[in-house]
Design brief:
alpha/beta, seven-stranded mixed beta sheet, Rossmann fold, P-loop_NTPase, ATP binding, four-stranded antiparallel beta sheet, ABC_transporter-like_ATP-bd, nucleotide-binding, AAA+_ATPase, 8 helices, binds adenosine-5'-triphosphate
């Protein structure tokens, strides 16, 4: 087993994942994520973005390959230890808002902090602060069913940021938002990540969203690909002479 580079907070090597029905989720993906970096994982629908985020976060175990977090091997951890790692160090945002309907908005946003052992009062203060930043502070005492889908997604983003996780996995986090909302919410998310030193792994098929990241890794059919711009062909018109293709690496 080769140890990962010291400055990578997350490091994965040769990840393979196959679903129970035989669908190939990942076919040999390797990557490193530096501390504090915002890394976009791009690619079309079905290319393996969600599967990669699930494997990197320890939500599922890859069939083969290695995942390291801060030089600690995640791929050899038991499910219970992986669960504790996710609770204490990682945050997760789904493409659809998932909240506990019986709890108020602020209780939902404070939940990860309380599960980590932070007192109720401190958790509430942090939750309210993040709900304000995401423009849903006025709804703190309501239950999720009184909010719109877009507001519920903002609550999920506040909930993920409140504990200042070491790594935030955001899978199409702005999918339920209108275009106008999207830019504002993404800016809040990236600004918060940069000011709190949170590393972000951002799954997205949207080039504009990926443009906010420091770097993009693109997937195609479960493999990482590199976009290569070919030089112009001498004598050909500009539009004919330039081409881009993706190579498996
Ligand atoms: N639960 C599942 N059971 C079987 N196959 C699955 C399952 N989830 C995903 N897949 C398959 O695994 C491959 C990768 O899917 P994945 O959801 O990781 O891609 P994605 O890039 O996140 O797509 P999207 O942008 O649509 O969310 C696809 O071929 C998909 O059909």
């Amino acid at each position: 087993m080769v140890a990962p580079p010291d400055n990578d907070v997350l490091w994965a090597r040769a990840l393979h994942y196959r679903y129970d029905d035989g669908s190939p989720g990942l076919s040999g993906v390797s990557l490193g994520v530096r501390e504090g970096e915002i890394l976009a994982v791009g690619g079309p629908r079905g290319s393996g973005k969600t599967t990669l985020l699930r494997c990197l976060s320890g939500l599922v175990a890859a069939r083969s390959g290695e995942v390291w977090f801060n030089s600690v091997p995640v791929h050899t951890m038991s499910p219970v230890v992986r669960e504790r790692l996710r609770r204490d160090r990682f945050g997760w945002i789904d493409p659809e808002p998932v909240l506990v309907p019986e709890l108020t908005v602020w209780e939902n946003a404070a939940l990860p902090l309380m599960l980590r052992g932070t007192g109720r009062r401190r958790s509430r203060t942090a939750a309210l602060e993040w709900l304000e930043r995401l423009d849903v502070g006025d709804s703190a005492r309501r239950h999720p069913d009184r909010l719109t889908q877009a507001e519920r997604q903002r609550v999920c983003i506040a909930r993920a940021l409140a504990p200042a996780p070491a790594v935030l996995f955001a899978d199409e986090p702005t999918a339920p938002l209108h275009r106008a909302d999207r830019a504002h919410v993404l800016r809040t998310l990236t600004t918060a990540a940069r000011s709190h030193g949170i590393t972000v792994v951002l799954g997205t098929h949207d080039a504009q969203t990926a443009a906010l990241a420091d770097r993009t890794v693109s997937l195609l059919d479960g493999r990482s690909v590199r976009t290569v711009h070919l030089p112009p062909v001498p004598g050909a018109a500009e539009s004919e002479g330039r081409a881009a293709c993706s190579l498996s690496v």
